[in-house]
DNA sequence: CTCAGTGCAAAGGATTTGCATGCCG
DNA sequence: CGGCATGCAAATCCTTTGCACTGAG
């Protein structure tokens, strides 16, 4: 699994004309371990020896190479996760209070409905559809129990 | 229509303990006229006499009062539109190139599927669902014709 | 050797905030 | 009058950038 992931990442980076440096390897590893979208602060916390600017720069490189996806929620911090090409299509549960983002997968049937309906909806507006994104916004368990 | 909108906005502001000042009236009017989500820069362009800080502040007040919805796309600027309570439930077409946001309505049937599926999906994760948001990301007509 | 990658510090830039003044209720 | 609203300018703070150094190929 991990070996396979490494190979895919290496291939994508190479295709984009970049190296698979140890910092980048670490970033991918942190994201893989996290299993859910995390912020750059979190990355820096778990890998204190990484320079902030390098993390920002490398995540940008990895994003451009299609290895990583940047998630902007409206929370102060952007979140990052492995791109769907390396995982699988999914959506996000976003806590409006603490900003945490976690993954959800729609029932296949619903997803199919969307895939069937969205392209023509976009086309009707002269839009070339690239992808869609569905977020469920609410309050996570921790925030509802801790209350206010 | 407009009179009705005014009344609703006034009521919501009052309920939140705020005044329906002329600046706020103008903001609502700009958003109504726009008919699609716009950025603060656009507001300032069309109403140069409004102070930037007041626009930011008032949009925050209007958002808290449930009159306005802030849309964060990942583009540099946030977009604003009238809240769904004053319009109707809809989603967004986002141009990945120029950042423009426009409204779309899903076929009722698809929307129903979502409404049926999402709550339990969220509940299964200990999440209290507030609302969902579906964005179609692609390239708008202007950007595809102008190309690159 | 060459050039991408790294780290530190400084710059950027949308948004927020402090504070004095204006104005509605 | 009292307190919210407004404007100007300054401060915030996540993110980006400049620049000199390091290291892989």
List the helices and strands and how they pair.
Two copies of one chain form a homodimer.
Chain A: H1 2-15, H2 22-34, E1 38-39, H3 40-46, H4 52-64, E2 68-71, E3 79-82, E4 91-95, E5 101-104, H5 108-123, E6 128-139, H6 141-145
Parallel strand pairs in A: 4-6
Antiparallel strand pairs in A: 1-3, 2-3, 4-5
Chain A binds a DNA duplex (25 and 25 nucleotides) through helix 4.
Features of the shown structure:
homodimer, about 150 residues, alpha+beta, Arc Repressor Mutant, subunit A, Dna Ligase, domain 1, three-stranded antiparallel beta sheet, about 20% strand, DNA-binding
Produce a short descriptive summary.
The structure is a homodimer of 148-residue chains. Chain A has 148 residues and is of the alpha+beta class. In chain A, 46% of the residues lie in helices and 21% in strands.
Account of the protein in words:
2 copies of one chain form a homodimer. The first copy, chain A, has a 3-stranded antiparallel beta sheet with strand order 1-3-2. In chain A, strands 5-4-6 form a 3-stranded mixed beta sheet. The longest helix of chain A has 16 residues, at about 110-125. The radius of gyration of chain A is 17 Å and the shape is globular. Chain A folds into 2 domains: about 1-85, Orthogonal Bundle (Arc Repressor Mutant, subunit A), CATH 1.10.10.10; about 90-148, 2-Layer Sandwich (Dna Ligase, domain 1), CATH 3.30.1490.190. In chain A, strand 4 and strand 5 (about 100-105) form a beta hairpin. Chain A is built from 6 helices and 6 strands, in the order ααβααββββαβα. With about 150 residues, chain A is α+β, with helices and mostly antiparallel strands. Chain A binds a DNA duplex (25 and 25 nucleotides) through helix 4.
């Amino acid at each position: 699994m991990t070996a396979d992931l490494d190979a895919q990442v290496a291939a994508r980076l190479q295709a984009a004309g970049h190296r698979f440096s140890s910092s980048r390897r670490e970033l991918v590893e942190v994201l893989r371990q996290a299993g859910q979208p995390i912020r750059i602060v979190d990355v820096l916390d778990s890998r204190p020896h990484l320079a902030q600017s390098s993390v920002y720069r490398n995540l940008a490189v990895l994003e451009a190479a299609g290895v990583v996806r940047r998630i902007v929620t409206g929370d102060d911090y952007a979140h990052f996760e492995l791109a769907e090409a390396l995982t699988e299509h999914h959506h996000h549960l976003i806590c409006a209070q603490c900003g945490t983002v976690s993954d959800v997968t729609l029932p296949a049937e619903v997803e199919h409905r969307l895939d069937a309906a969205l392209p023509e909806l976009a086309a009707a507006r002269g839009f070339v559809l690239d992808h869609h994104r569905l977020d469920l916004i609410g309050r996570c368990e921790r925030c509802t129990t801790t209350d206010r």
